[in-house]
Design goal:
Elements (H helix, E strand, L loop, with lengths): L2 H10 L1 H16 L7 H10 L1 H15 L8 H18 L4 H24 L5 H20 L9 H8 L13 H27 L7 H23 L6 H19 L1 H11 L1 H6 L4 H27 L10 H11 L11 H21 L3 H26 L1
């Protein structure tokens, strides 16, 4: 393998390598506690909102490095609305969920209108939204915490997939799902390879594809194995999986998804080529509002309450995950898998330092340094490319 290919490989998989190194470091420092089944479960549950918000934030960043500062406040507001409906007014759980999604979408439409069609800078619009919806959250909650959530609602997010094989202390269903997921991934990967070969496109070396499939399959099966040793697959993992798969497909396989990259790469060129750039901006922020509502549903289920401080700094976690996961600060590049890696890295750092008993303030320092390093790497890489 020549130097150019080695360089390309490390550039492409930098964050994956960093994630592996960080996990090994914390596993060593915590005496293996990081990889305990319960801690793997906690890693998923505690960072579910990050996976959801970062997926939506990526679309905003793709349009040119734009961000949404309001998502934490929107999560708090939508959660307050949902809790008020379900707990205080005894509104049906499913109707409440529909209303929460509608509220989030309307907020996204409101902000998207000003950003896309009136061309108010996203930073200003979402900063205003951050202040407005945080204030509205306190108005709805009247400064109090609303709890507990109905059990039917909690079951949608906080419960676990039933073990159909009824394993004794080991969730066999979880392991079966891991094996099936690995098989589906491998088949789809090689199916895509054969399709590209048939069309005459360049493909990776067969050895590289085999190695990638082996590594990914091992990760999936190992994850499900550890979860099987605790309570099995948490419902929230299914929610995350569905969202990730949908948006990975949209960004990589659809025309609309490619428009986000085109606008971020060169908006003027995209407009001249016939892309409705206003609509792209509008969709990015309307979608962000919708996913903020989903994150609100996850959050109040996780906390079993809605309180005035919910969602605090959520926007920073989402933005950080995107940039750490390889999204460009200038827009036009970034992937959903990269965002998931970035969010996982943030979660591992949080969990690892918490297990080690490191002060929360130092945790913020480390996360800030990791974010800065990721953006510096992106900027310097682009300078070298030029």
């Amino acid at each position: 393998m020549d130097k150019a290919k080695v360089s390309t490989f490390f550039k492409k998989y930098t964050m994956v390598i960093v994630l592996v190194i960080v996990m090994l470091l914390f596993t060593w420092q915590t005496g293996g506690k990081l990889l305990l089944p319960q801690n793997i479960n906690n890693l998923i549950l505690q960072n579910a909102y990050v996976f959801v918000l970062a997926t939506g934030m990526l679309l905003c960043i793709l349009t040119g490095g734009n961000i949404d500062l309001s998502v934490g406040s929107v999560v708090c507001f939508v959660g307050a609305v949902g809790a008020t409906l379900m707990v205080k007014n005894n509104v049906n759980v499913f109707l409440s969920i529909v209303i929460m999604l509608a509220v989030g979408l309307l907020i996204g439409i409101w902000q998207g209108f000003w950003i896309a069609y009136r061309r108010i800078p996203p930073f200003i619009v979402t900063l205003a939204g951050m202040l407005m919806f945080r204030g509205m959250s306190n108005i709805v909650l009247q400064g109090y915490t609303i709890a507990p959530m109905p059990q039917g609602y909690l079951n949608l997010f906080n419960s676990y997939i039933v073990d159909f094989f009824q394993g004794d202390g080991f969730n066999i269903t979880s392991l079966v799902v891991g094996i099936l997921a690995a098989a589906i991934y491998t088949i789809s990967r090689f199916r895509q390879r054969f399709q590209r070969l048939k069309k005459g496109y360049d493909v990776d070396n067969i050895g590289t594809d085999i190695l990638r499939c082996v590594v990914m399959s091992a990760v999936m099966i190992a994850l499900m194995w550890r979860l099987a040793m605790y309570k099995g697959i948490p419902n929230i993992l299914l929610w995350i999986g569905i969202i990730v798969l949908i948006y990975a497909y949209i960004t990589s396989k659809t025309t609309v998804g490619r428009h986000f990259y085109a606008v971020g790469g060169n908006e003027k060129a995209a407009k001249l080529s016939g892309i409705n750039t206003n609509r792209v901006y509008f969709l990015a922020y309307a979608n962000m509002g919708l996913l903020a509502a989903v994150a609100a549903m996850v959050t109040i289920a996780r906390l079993n309450s809605a309180n005035p401080t919910a969602g605090d700094s959520y926007e920073m976690d989402a933005i950080g995950s995107c940039f750490i996961g390889g999204a460009s600060a200038y827009g036009g590049s970034g992937t959903i898998p990269g965002v998931i890696i970035g969010a996982t890295l943030m979660g591992v750092i949080n969990l690892g330092m918490s297990i080690m008993g490191i002060d929360a303030n130092w945790q913020k320092v480390v996360k800030g340094l990791v974010l800065l390093a990721a953006v510096i790497f992106d900027v310097e890489s682009k300078k070298n490319s030029r």
